[in-house]
Design brief:
globular; 395 residues; alpha/beta
Length: 395
Amino acid sequence: MNKKRNIAIIGIGVTNFGELFDQSYDDLVRDASLQAIKDAGIAMDEIEAAWLSTAFPEIGVFKGRSGMDLSEPLNLYDIPVTRVSNFCASGADAIRNAANALNAGECDVAMALGVEKLRDRSPQDSIVKMMVELSHPFYQKGFTAAGTFAVYANRIMHEYGVTKEDIACVSVKNHKHGTLNSKAHRRISCSLEQVLAAPMVADPLTVMDCCPTTDGAACLIMIRAEDVDRKKHRPIYIQGIGLSISTGWDLPFFDPNHDFLAFKATQNAAHIAYEQAGITKPMDEIDLVEIHDCFSIVELLTYEDLGLCKAGEAKDLIRGDVTKLGGETPVNVSGGLLSCGHPVGATGVRMTVEICNHLRGDAGERQVEGAKTGVTHNIGGPGAIASVIVLRNEN
């Protein structure tokens, strides 16, 4: 059953994203949560349940193994706190779980917080090493995220005439947007020539097509829509959440019917979220999107999976101004993962904070004027897990 959501976000907070060697995991938890609590106009002891998103506690600071790692730095005890881990969709799944608990009446005020410290480790203790040693004993061997998405890039180039320049244009666009975001990891613009000339990671993806490894945290305070106090709160409403796990580790690479031109998980998640929110014409009804551009090619593929264009037309969007700030449907005006970086457990929550700022009119010089409806998208694992969230300003 795709039940319509009835949840309001009343508090938002996000830390700087970057190489935060001078801040601990606990510091980041406190920074993001205190921002959100102040924004919501509540006290810490009003929170009745919380969800902590940390995807990779096995690396870095060895924090985030349980809800205790949120309770302790906030002195937030005697309430349920649940740790959520679902690859790159972890933050979005924490939001989904908090929304479900509110809808079920299990709590009246909920927190969803995502945090990750990925820079506090040596190069020898990389995410790649962790995945190979601790994940699937067969399918994970030889796996890299860049290699996975490079397969899709080569396929879409062959099938739809997408060029390396088209893929690189995503990086150029998002890095330009990132120069306007004071909390982004990479606040540098780049030219098409610089992206193409950067060291190759997995053909055709260069270093500049890949998001950086990053520390950061973000937080939401959520209540039911009927509990909103319009004199006190500045609510943004969650009107749809879709999460889909569409393949296992052996798929899609061992599925003879998979065409490597789309991610079924994203399509399924979008269908669920759009149905809940009543969206039938995404390009006409959505004002801005935060897409999971862990690699430039993912943004292009997601244009089609989210229904922003028809199959084979993603290259036409990036060749024009449609997805740029000031365009018809701006995408990743935060700078995306390519500029903000990707502290995995925090990313989905950070995207939601970004959309909330635009829908409130608080995004500063990167503001999408008149924005009323925004969408976030996350994808993780071997393209198997995806989340889509629809947010609206109904004021």
